[in-house]
């Protein structure tokens, strides 16, 4: 008996595998357009398993591809004589449509739709069959029937997708909103689906539709997910202050965590809305009872104030604020992030490297982890580079590499070894370190390493004395030291004394970014235009186009010129890292209703 069952099992398995292999082969023929070969296999599969609808529909499809509409019709009619399946009725109607018998097709479509009244369980399969043939209006009718006949089911997500395909954005939004009410935990999926249809422009028609719908929902049923969705929409529009209002409303309803509010503050800060970011962090300070959260907020506020400070008096006020916080919270493992921020403030803004170094060395004596010690050493080494004490800095960077091998901070230390060697003019050693970092697990470090390696390798052989490259590295160091004017002057020296050398476009680009830092936007514009005119085939061409477009768009109020540059990137620099962002901003400036 056991042997008999084994043999039966083997035969069934072999039959399944054989059918599976045949189907794969038939699909392969179909994709290649070899429909006659596919037809033979599907005919055999349909004979073997006449009740397998998958094989039947593929057989019909192949007949239709070969324009053998009568053959497809005969198969469908024979099957419908046995059982009036509504998906087969749709298929027969579509076959008549392909034969231009539109009245017969419409009659059959109506029959399939009416069938739903008797057997609502067929809603999805019938609507899906209509969708397969791009019969979207018919699919909508079926799903709408389903909503009435099967109120426990929800077809809003399917309807939203169809309305989106039709370009009926308002109806699409309505159905997505309806689906969120049905399944609130799907809100992030809906955000992703909606994101392609809105833009940064708050006056965009689609944005207005969605905002009205959400505000209406908040008035009707103030559930947390409507506030969350509206907050998300405001973030897309970069209206961080309005998003903050929604987040506060959310927090008041559920005051468990300030994480969402802090995340919004950081997003606003990263997008240069420091005023809103500071307002949010002040709210965090007023609200939180947690020391770590308070310290994080204090630190961000002080860093914002530091970036906006324009006088020594303002910096001294910030210095005093740091010390008051240390009096309040002490100097321990808990306040280490604040200590690191203060050490950087002293060195890079107060220009007091000795006090910064002394302060950080005391931090190293605290009861901190090996990783935290590495963070302190990394900043100490940076300050030594600031002082041009390169060899001492290299010792710290190397210690981090040895103590925390293969970690991200170790890779960052290796990159800084390379950068320090580059500042010193030791280009060969710098290049050897950068080669290793090209495969860094940190994409940011890998990209920075590749950029610096290309700069060195492209320019170190042109001049045996490597004068221009040494000037450029020194200008880079000046920029690191916040000596912006000195960096610009040294880059001017390269531009004047090394005309025709390959480093010129790099010097123009670096200088343009420094001009932007000093808000000398017209000078930056001139540099970008020169790169575009004289170095259109070189590696920085797309960078120059993008940065100039951003300059026009955000500082020089020249939206038309910005639009032309974004369009240039779309058509001439398809492989550029700026391609996706340029397409998005081009469509926004053009006023597209769909982003």
Topology:
Elements lengths: L1 H31 L2 H14 L4 H13 L3 H14 L3 H13 L3 H17 L4 H10 L3 H14 L6 H11 L2 H14 L4 H9 L9 H16 L3 H13 L3 H14 L5 H12 L3 H14 L3 H18 L3 H18 L6 H13 L4 H12 L5 H17 L3 H14 L4 H17 L2 H11 L5 H17 L7 H14 L3 H14 L6 H14 L3 H14 L6 H14 L4 H14 L6 H12 L5
Helix pairs in contact: 1-2, 2-3, 3-4, 4-5, 5-6, 5-7, 6-8, 7-8, 8-9, 9-10, 10-12, 12-13, 13-14, 14-15, 15-16, 16-17, 17-18, 17-19, 19-20, 19-21, 20-21, 21-22, 21-23, 22-23, 23-24, 23-25, 24-25, 26-27, 27-28, 28-29, 29-30, 30-31, 31-32
Structure description:
The structure is a single chain. With 595 residues, the protein is mainly α. It contains 32 helices and no strands. The protein has helices spanning 2-32, 35-48, 53-65, 69-82, 86-98, 102-118, 123-132, 136-149, 156-166, 169-182, 187-195, 205-220, 224-236, 240-253, 259-270, 274-287, 291-308, 312-329, 336-348, 353-364, 370-386, 390-403, 408-424, 427-437, 443-459, 467-480, 484-497, 504-517, 521-534, 541-554, 559-572, 579-590. Helix 4 (69-82) packs antiparallel against helix 5 (86-98), helix 23 runs antiparallel to helix 24 and helix 26 (467-480) packs antiparallel against helix 27 (484-497). The relative contact order is 0.03. InterPro entries: TPR-like_helical_dom_sf, TPR_rpt. It comes from Winogradskyella poriferorum. This is Tetratricopeptide repeat protein.
């Amino acid at each position: 008996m056991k042997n008999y069952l084994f043999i039966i099992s083997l035969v069934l398995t072999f039959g399944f595998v054989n059918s599976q292999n045949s189907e794969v082969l038939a699909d392969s023929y179909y994709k290649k357009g070899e429909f006659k070969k596919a037809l033979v296999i599907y005919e055999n599969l349909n004979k073997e398993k006449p009740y397998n609808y998958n094989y039947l529909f593929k057989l019909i499809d192949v007949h239709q591809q070969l324009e053998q509409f009568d053959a497809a019709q005969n198969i469908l009619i024979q099957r419908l004589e046995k059982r009036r399946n509504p998906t087969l009725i749709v298929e027969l109607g579509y076959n008549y449509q392909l034969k231009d018998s539109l009245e017969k097709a419409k009659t059959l479509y109506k029959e399939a739709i009416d069938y739903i009244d008797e057997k609502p369980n067929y809603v999805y399969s019938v609507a899906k069959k209509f969708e397969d043939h791009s019969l979207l209006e018919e699919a909508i009718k079926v799903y709408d029937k389903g909503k009435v006949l099967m109120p426990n089911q929800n077809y809003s997500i399917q309807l939203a997708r169809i309305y989106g395909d039709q370009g009926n954005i308002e109806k699409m939004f309505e159905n997505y909103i309806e689906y969120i009410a049905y399944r609130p935990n799907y809100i992030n999926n809906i955000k992703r689906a909606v994101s392609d249809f809105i833009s940064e422009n708050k006056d965009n028609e689609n944005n207005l539709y969605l905002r009205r719908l959400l505000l209406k929902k908040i008035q009707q049923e103030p559930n947390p997910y409507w506030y969350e969705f509206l907050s998300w929409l405001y973030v897309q529009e970069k209206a961080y202050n309005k998003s903050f209002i929604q987040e506060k409303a959310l927090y008041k309803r559920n005051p468990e965590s300030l994480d969402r509010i802090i995340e919004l503050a950081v997003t606003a800060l990263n997008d240069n809305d420091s005023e809103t970011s500071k307002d949010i962090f002040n709210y965090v300070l007023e609200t939180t009872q947690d020391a770590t959260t308070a310290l994080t907020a204090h630190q961000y506020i002080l860093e914002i104030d530091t970036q906006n400070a324009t006088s020594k008096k303002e910096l001294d006020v910030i210095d005093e604020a740091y010390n008051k916080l240390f009096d309040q919270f002490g100097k321990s493992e808990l306040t280490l992030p604040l200590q690191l921020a203060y050490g950087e403030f002293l060195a890079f803004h107060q220009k007091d490297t000795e006090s910064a170094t002394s302060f950080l060395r005391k931090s190293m004596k605290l009861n901190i982890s090996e990783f935290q010690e590495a963070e302190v050493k990394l900043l100490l080494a940076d300050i030594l580079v600031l002082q041009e004490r390169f060899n001492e800095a290299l010792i710290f960077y190397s210690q981090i590499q040895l103590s925390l091998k293969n970690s991200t901070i170790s890779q960052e230390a290796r990159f800084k070894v390379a950068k320090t060697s580059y500042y010193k003019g030791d280009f060969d050693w710098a290049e050897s370190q950068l080669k290793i970092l090209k495969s860094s697990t940190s994409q940011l470090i890998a990209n920075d390493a590749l950029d610096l390696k290309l700069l060195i390798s492209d320019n170190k052989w042109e001049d045996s004395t490597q004068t221009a490259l040494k000037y450029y590295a020194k200008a880079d160091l000046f920029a690191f030291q916040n000596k912006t004017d000195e960096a610009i002057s040294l880059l001017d020296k390269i531009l004047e004394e090394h005309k025709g050398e390959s480093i010129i476009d790099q010097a123009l680009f670096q200088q343009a970014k420094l001009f932007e830092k000093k808000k000398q936007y017209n000078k930056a514009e001139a540099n970008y235009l020169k790169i575009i005119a004289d170095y259109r085939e070189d590696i920085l061409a797309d960078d120059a186009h993008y940065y100039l477009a951003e300059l026009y768009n955000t500082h020089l109020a020249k939206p038309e010129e910005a639009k032309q540059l974004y369009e240039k990137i779309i058509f001439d620099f398809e492989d550029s890292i700026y391609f996706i962002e340029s397409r998005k901003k081009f469509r926004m400036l053009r006023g597209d209703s769909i982003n």
